[in-house]
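Changelog-linked ticket: 3-hydroxybutanoyl-coenzyme A example.
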Amino acid sequence: MYAQEVKSTGKGIKSLDEMEPDERAFQEKIDANIKIEPKDWMPEGYRKNLIRQISQHAHSEIVGQLPEGNWITRAPSLDRKAILLAKVQDEAGHGLYLYCAAETLGVSRDQMTEQLLAGKAKYSSIFNYPTLTWADIGAIGWLVDGAAIMNQVPIQRCSFGPYSRAMIRVCKEESFHQRQGYDIMMKLAAGTDEQKEMAQDALNRWWWPSLMMFGPPDAESVHSAQSMAWKIKMNTNDELRQKFVDQTVPQAEYLGLKVPDDDLKWNDEKDGYDFGEIDWAEFYEILKGNGPCNKERIGARQKAWTDGEWFREGLMAHAKKREARKVAAE
Ligand code: 3HC
C-alpha cells in the first residue's frame, strides 16, 4: 500500500510487511497523517534525515542573509532600505525557528554550526552567487523567495510537528519577501532603458540557479523516495520545479522581460512549459564548494562564529549562574 504510493524512485523502501512492529506502527501514523512529535518513537533514519534537511534549511536562511545584507547600505531609498532590513531580519528569525525545530531531535546548535563550517552540512546552492546590482535584490525576492515558497508550502503539511509548524510562520513572511522583490522588478522594468536592462540582466543571472534550488533531477535524488514515504517531503524536486516555471514565466512576461531559455515553450498536452536543460555540472560544482561565492559565504559564517564566541560564553555563564541561584532558592 504505502510503498506503491511513493511517487519518486521508490528505491530501497521497505513495504509494511517487511517492517519491525515499531516501524510498522510508526509508518501507519505517517500514512494516517498523524503528526510525529519529538518525544514519539521514530526510526533513527527518520531522525537523521530530518536533522539533515532541517539544519540545511536553517543554514540556508542564515547564509541567505549575506548576499542581501550586502545591499542594505546601498538601497536606493529609505523605504527600500527599511523593507530590505525587515526581510533580512525575518530570515534570521526563520533560521532560529528551524534550528529550534532541529534541536528537538537531539542535536545542538553548536553541533549544527560546526558541521556547516566543517563542510559536513550544506546550505542552498542559490546563495553562492554574487549580488552585482540593486536589481539582484529584486530578482532574489521574486525568484529565490518565490522558489522557496514553492518548496516550503508543502512542508507545512510534513509529518514532523515542529518542522511543519515552523513552516506555517515562515511561509506567511516569505509571501511578503516575494512581493517586495517583484515590486522592485516592476519599478525597474517600467523605468528607464538602463533600469530595464538591469532587471533583464538580473533575470538572466538568477533564472537557472533558481531552478537548481529545487534539487537534482528526480532520477538523481538520493533522499526523495524515503523522504516522501516518511512525508518529510510532499513532492518530488521536478514536480515543484515545474510548478515554479509555470507560475513564474507569466510574471516575467507581465514585466516585459525575457526568460533566458530559448527552449521555453508552452506544451498544451502537459498543460505546462517545456524548458531547456539545466547545467547540472554547475550545480554539482557549487555543492562541492566551487561556486562564485562559496568561500566568501563560509568565511563570513566562520568569522561570525569565532567573533561571537565570547558572547556565547557570557550567555552560558549567565544562564548557569541563574540556574544555580534557582536551585539554591528551592
Ligand atoms: N542546494 C544545496 N544542496 C542541495 C540542493 C540545493 N539547492 N538540492 C539538493 N541538495 C543536496 C541534498 O541536500 C542532498 O545532499 P545531502 O545528502 O548531503 O543532504 C543531495 O543534494 C541530493 O539531493 P536530494 O534531492 O536527494 O535531497 P533532498 O531530498 O533533501 O531535496 C531539497 C533537496 C529540495 C532542497 C530539500 O532538502 C528541501 O526541501 N529542503 C528544505 C527547504 C529548503 O532548504 N529550501 C531552500 C532554502 S531556504 C531559502 O531559500 C530561504 C529563503 O528565505 C530565501
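Closing comment: Example verified and attached. Residues 1-9 have pLDDT under 50 and may be disordered. Residues 289 and 295 are 7 Å apart (CA to CA).
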